[in-house]
Amino acid sequence: MPKAKAHPDQVSFDFDAPAPAKGFAGLAGLERRICETVGSILASDFRSRAVIAAEMSDILDENISVDMLNAYSSPARTEHRVPMSRFFALLVVTGRQDQFRPLLREIGISGLLGDEVKTARLGQLQQVIAEAQAEMRQLKGNAPKIKGKE
């Protein structure tokens, strides 16, 4: 299967460390922002909501209707909260996992997509190497020669 192309409106990774919302009403309006995210995802997909609902139904093995998607994408319909499993399914079937990044940042988390994890691992390995090199430099000045047969 060919690798999917990035969506032209893909949310980019933010390298600033996120801080979780705290204090009184720190996460107020989160449901509205989730609904807006669902609406944005649905609006950016070229497929019909019926097709998206069918794919979500398949991946979750439960019935998802167009009416549900319409309700989930309407900030005015506050009684229709999006279950996390359905939100995740929407992200997967539309390939818009990037849309989860801004919501994650609200709770102090940054997210990497797919192979971006390899870039993070490279950075981690570079840090391990730098720490080992620093330890080697420190030992070099204090380490005695090992005596043996000459």
List keywords for this structure.
single chain, about 150 residues, mainly alpha, disordered N terminus
Please outline what is shown here.
The protein is mainly alpha-helical and 150 residues long.
Largest sheet: none
- The termini sit apart by 62 Å
Helix share, percent? 40-55%
Mean pLDDT: 88
Indicate the proportion of strand residues.
under 5%
What coarse outline follows from CA principal-axis ratios?
elongated
**Strand runs, count:** 0
The radius of gyration computed from the alpha-carbon positions, rounded to a whole number of angstroms, is 23 Å
Residue stretches low in confidence (pLDDT < 50, at least 5 long) are: 1-5
SSE order: HHHHHH
Q: Structural class, judged by helices and strands?
A: mainly alpha
Number of helices: 6
Q: Would you write up a description of this structure?
A:
- The protein has 150 residues and is an all-alpha fold.
- It has a domain at 30-111.
- Helix content is 51%, strand content 0%.
- The longest helix is centred in the last third of the chain and has 27 residues, at 116-142.
- The N and C termini lie far apart (62 Å).
